[in-house]
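[Q] Does anyone have a clean structure-token version of this?
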Amino acid sequence: MLKRKFTDYLKQWKATKQKECLLVRGARQIGKTFIIEDFARNNYESFVELNFEQFPALKNAFDGELTVTEMIKRISVYIPSARFIPHKTLIFFDEIQSCPLARTSLKFWALDDTYDVIASGSLLGVNCKAVSSFPMGYERQVDMYSLDFEEYLWAIGLSDELINSLREHFINKTKIDDAVHKKMMEYLREYMVVGGMPAVVSQFVATKNFGIVHQEQEKIISAYLNDIAKYAESADRAKARSCFLSIPRQLAKDNTKFQYSVVEHKGTGRKFGSALDWLRDAGIVAYCYNLSTLQFPLSAYIRDDQFRIYLTDIGLLVSMYGFEMKAALLTDTLSGPAKGGIFENLMADMLHKKKQPLYFFKKDDSSMAIEFVLTHDSQPLPIEVKSKNGRTLSLDEVLTWNNIENGYKFGNLNVGVDGKKITLPLYMAMFL
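[A] Here you go.
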């Protein structure tokens, strides 16, 4: 079984919740159902699960009065084995986007507070119009993602002691043993190829076969395309598919800013904007916005008409380039603009899973470009990502500005400090 950080979050919610249900959001096949089921088995005397896609008839349990007493009666008709033990039962609504009335009912489960309730969904924005009343104030929403790099290291057997020693090097900015650094870069390239989807990671751990890994990834991509056809508004289906399939081409350009013209000749935001938003709401992609200036707070200076789009799982992106891309990455023989885009997506993946908002900085009137910008101690923190060793002209210029205290250069580099510039190996992005 894969060790996930989200288990700790579920335990914290159970211990601290006050009349609230938990709503777990995220893309399909990232392990939401499995981890909630495992949590229920280990923390409750009774577990009642309603999967509205697998058993559509369960939706009928929410027709009528939404009092807890009446809902339990109707649920027991469809699940005769269900046991509702007060304060010792977890009720799980899986694929809740398929039953808008179940979403409405969360308020009444929370007010009653006799049973713990967790709901999960992949495309929660799809059925907003069908939800008669949102349970505002009675649900805690949380996003879940595929395995991050640290969880991947756990899966392949690395110890917490080793990871914690690397964290100490990050905190103290001290050099890592060259042999350890080399091995960690190998693990990182492996993660870029495998990614974090639980089914894919499990297959890799069991077989160490990259061919099987690729087959699993192709299945997931096909499932995403099927979801687009099934759930997207009819006007957006073809456009969302085209936007999704364009992402590898978007990131293979010298300028990785998202361009609608790459999706379709003379394409525009007016035509494709809602389709792209659908992919974001489905948890498949993440937006990274350009900033008009490097000033705190960053969110005040977003240029919402200029953005990059990254897939939320690096392994799926690599698989979309084809199987041969895996060999090129694993042997570190890839070159060209596509390499830079893939490494950008790697950093975006690692930051996104840390719940960091994604920003970059690119001036219109110059070649200056900073791949990512974070905030540290109420100051902008510029980050450059290098897929190969080389100079960082943009970062060097930004570090001459008075309001910038430090900047990070990530690459196939050991830890080092040169004035304001801190060099770090790419795998240490898991500690940001």
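[Q] Thanks! Anything notable?
[A] The two ends are 27 Å apart (CA to CA).
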